[in-house]
Amino acid sequence: METRVIPVDREHLQSEDFAEAAQLLRDGELVAFPTETVYGLGGDALDPDASRRIYAAKGRPSDNPLIVHIADTDALPVLAEEIPQSAWELADRFWPGPLTIILRKKEIVPDATTGGLDTVAIRMPSDPVAAMLIRVSGVYIAAPSANASGRPSPTCAEHVYEDLKGRIPMILDGGSVPIGLESTIVDLTGETPLVLRPGFITIEQLREVLPTVEYDPAVVKRVKDETIVARAPGMRYRHYAPKGELTIFEGDLDRVVARVQKEAEAKLAEGYRVAVLASEETKDRYHGLTVRSVGDREEEASVAAHLFGTLREFDSMGAEYIFGESFPEAGVGQAVMNRLMKAAGYRIVAVEE
Ligand code: TXA
Ligand code: MG
């Protein structure tokens, strides 16, 4: 199958430009498209065959449920039942935007889309390309991140092409996404509302609307502990993983830089391909090593925006060992460190001296 990459000009969106993509979706085919978080691989959420195609294209286990993207809150009662007041309040405050809400599903949502669960994940993206695609096609779009299973989520159309070329008919190219990490997921189906995946919208922001919300314990674990099982199936898999072995060092920044330099030099001397995951503030302090800055330590959002692209770059340079700094956990930094720790398989070293 030929994969066509169609540029879209987000400043001048015209519904005619979406006609072909919309038709593909209505025909049960797949279209990759940008959202404000990461690129999604879309298919008709109410068509079980389209959902199966999504799993096949990604090589993803089919028990891992998909997020259903909507363009209007009117879709909530179509897809979900027993909708608590808190869902409307969250929608009112954060939609359209990078928040996914889990609710009890209605019959109309096929098991193939929810991985057999009786709940459904729903999100209204703010990206105008995504919103236009949903509106023009008239379908609710089931969309996981548009990466091959196990690879970092795609933050530009080139990443999607790299992973899925020949496997899907169309990619809408809207350039680089603004956020770079997947949406915050909040589950409203249990007694206590839970954040199943941290994202750009922080738990502090959620608490302004929903004071009782807590983290799913699996989200905040800092060690590899198999007894703490994530409630979101997708958070259980080895994920966001670069091909090389990534180790994160945390502690006093000067000591971290010295330690990373030392560990990287040692592996380099053994003949391995080595890379360093650094920041704007530290990148010039390493010597004789391949260094990539993931962003400015003082601006968590810049780190979020570049994290997945940088992990992909390590893959394309064939890095066998990657030594990285840890990052402040304020704001979206919580989500950054969640992804980074998973990418490192929880290989985190506290640098004492
Ligand atoms: O930002 C995003 O959310 C992106 C863009 C494309 O919207 N999508 C995305 O989808 O990240 P995906 O499939 O890569 O991640 C969805 C996560 C998975 O961890 C999945 O297990 C979880 O959401 N999930 C979906 N439905 C669920 C449900 N009913 N209960 C628990 N977890 C659910
Ligand atoms: Mg994903």
How much of the residues is beta strand, in percent? Answer: 15-25%
What's the alpha carbon Rg, rounded to whole Å?
A: 20 Å
Instruction: Return the CATH topology of the largest domain.
Output: DHBP synthase
How many domains, as an integer?
A: 2
Could you tell me the number of beta strands? 17
Order of helices and strands: EHEEHEHEHEHEHEHEEEHEHEHEEHEHE
Uncertain segments are none
For CATH, the homologous superfamily of the largest domain is named as DHBP synthase
The averaged pLDDT comes out at 95
CATH class of the largest domain: Alpha Beta
Tally of DSSP helical segments: 12
Return the CATH architecture of the largest domain. Alpha-Beta Complex
Major beta sheet summary? 12 strands, mixed
Descriptive key words:
single chain; alpha/beta; DHBP synthase; 2 domains; 12-stranded mixed sheet; 5-stranded parallel sheet; binds threonylcarbamoyladenylate
Gist of the model:
The protein is an alpha/beta fold and 353 residues long.
Detailed description of the structure:
The structure is a single chain. Helices cover 31% and strands 19% of the residues. Helix 1 (19-26) packs across helix 6 (128-137). The longest helix is centred in the C-terminal third of the chain and has 17 residues, at 253-269. It is α/β, with parallel strands linked by helices and 353 residues long. The mean pLDDT is 95. The site of threonylcarbamoyladenylate has 28 residues, from strand 6 and strand 7.
